[in-house]
Amino acid sequence: MRTNEIGTNTRLGGMKVLVLGSGAREHALVRSLVADPVVDAVVAVPGNPGIAELADCVPVEGGITNGPQVVELATAHHVDLVVIGPEAPLVEGVADDLRAAGIPTFGPSARAAQLEGSKAFAKRIMAEAGVPTSLSHVCTTLDEVGEALDAFGPPYVVKDDGLAAGKGVVVTEDRDAALAHAAACFERPDGRIVIEEYLVGPEVSLFCISDGEHVIPLAPAQDFKRVADGDQGPNTGGMGAYSPLDWIPPHLVEDVVERVAKPTIRQMALLGMPFVGVLYVGLALTARGPKVIEFNVRFGDPETQVVLARLRTPLAGLLHAAATGQLEEVGPLHWHDGAAVTLVLAAEGYPAAPRTGAAITGLETITGETAYVLHAGTATTADGLTAAGGRVLSVVGLGADLAEARATAYHALGKIEMPGGHHRSDIALAAQNGQIEVPR
């Protein structure tokens, strides 16, 4: 294998990378991997029309949660690294199957993926590791839910214990609505509910890369989960994000690494389930300090779109080092100056009942280096590009500062036509105006 220096001491070359997933997060990953000089080719399973412009998109029998088929495909393509995008294949153990076949894989085992697959498990690990988080009750009956709601009082935070694609959380002042959400979650087999105290303070997303022992943080970002302006309406998978966060306290990232990420990684190793991949730490900056809202075990969407837009360090070497236990050899990460903003264009009816099939036009008018489009729920038909999911596109804008990045992103989004499509108009606006306050 040819050699080429990545980071400080990690040497790679002629790499072929397989990326699992089909969303804007995976499009962002593929975009960064293709730009890495040591990467010769990227294969995406199943990919999407935007990814297909950069990589070889191939289907897999049974979908990306079919571990044996993913292994067979990775072997047939002689890949040097597999990067797993979504949470479902991780929870299903696809990373275990790949590692058993000797294929370097960025993504945790099924046991380690319980940090996202079960909120009750994550709370247990946080307690054992001494990680600061909200108080919570795990409930298995509606009576227990009612008691927990009354113990904490409004606003009520009700979370489905299992995977829910970012939409299993309800935060409401209405006790009946909280109970109704819990009842719906209990309809699932083995349904459990986590009731939490409401944390007051702005939220921060921090991705921490780990090889099972060492931790390297990426730049923090902030995303917007509610569907409408002013953080109104139901939760979604995310309607936009931005980075950097100039308003966060000094040393926040270092503090979170030392008080949250490293203790969690150590605890997982002690339990015999070393965590290899990205630990997504969702934080609330409260008057009592940073507290963990949730863990995810993969890159977040849409935060990945802005974090990778600013990352100068080649991505393939970083992820390969994590996958092969060599993260300690990676030098300090380097970042582009300036800011990045991503805006999500969603289909009519999203998130409750997205309508697919709307024609998408105008993408060809977005050119240059300061704005680009990442595909999520799109499909190519005989009539052209159409909406094929709830979140359809992510539009990324770059700028010298947040105001310029916002202006660039919204200008680019304005060139896209999609009947019934909707987006938020206030992504990163409060940060641009200096209106975010951290409680003290």
TrEMBL record:
Residues 123-324 form the ATP-grasp domain. It catalyses: 5-phospho-beta-D-ribosylamine + glycine + ATP = N(1)-(5-phospho-beta-D-ribosyl)glycinamide + ADP + phosphate + H(+). InterPro entries: ATP-grasp (IPR011761), ATP_grasp_subdomain_1 (IPR013815), PreATP-grasp_dom_sf (IPR016185), PRibGlycinamid_synth_ATP-grasp (IPR020561), PRibGlycinamide_synth (IPR000115), PRibGlycinamide_synth_C-dom (IPR020560), PRibGlycinamide_synth_C_sf (IPR037123), PRibGlycinamide_synth_CS (IPR020559). It is an enzyme of class 6 (ligase). Its EC number is 6.3.4.13. GO terms for molecular function: ATP binding; metal ion binding; phosphoribosylamine-glycine ligase activity. Keywords: ATP-binding, Ligase, Nucleotide-binding, Purine biosynthesis. One of its GO terms (biological process) is purine nucleobase biosynthetic process. It comes from the Bacteria. Pfam families: GARS_A (PF01071), GARS_C (PF02843), GARS_N (PF02844). Pathway: Purine metabolism; IMP biosynthesis via de novo pathway; N(1)-(5-phospho-D-ribosyl)glycinamide from 5-phospho-alpha-D-ribose 1-diphosphate: step 2/2. PROSITE patterns: ATP_GRASP (PS50975), GARS (PS00184). Its cofactor is Mg(2+); Mn(2+). Belongs to the GARS family. HAMAP family: GARS. This is Phosphoribosylamine--glycine ligase. It comes from Nostocoides australiense Ben110. The gene is purD.
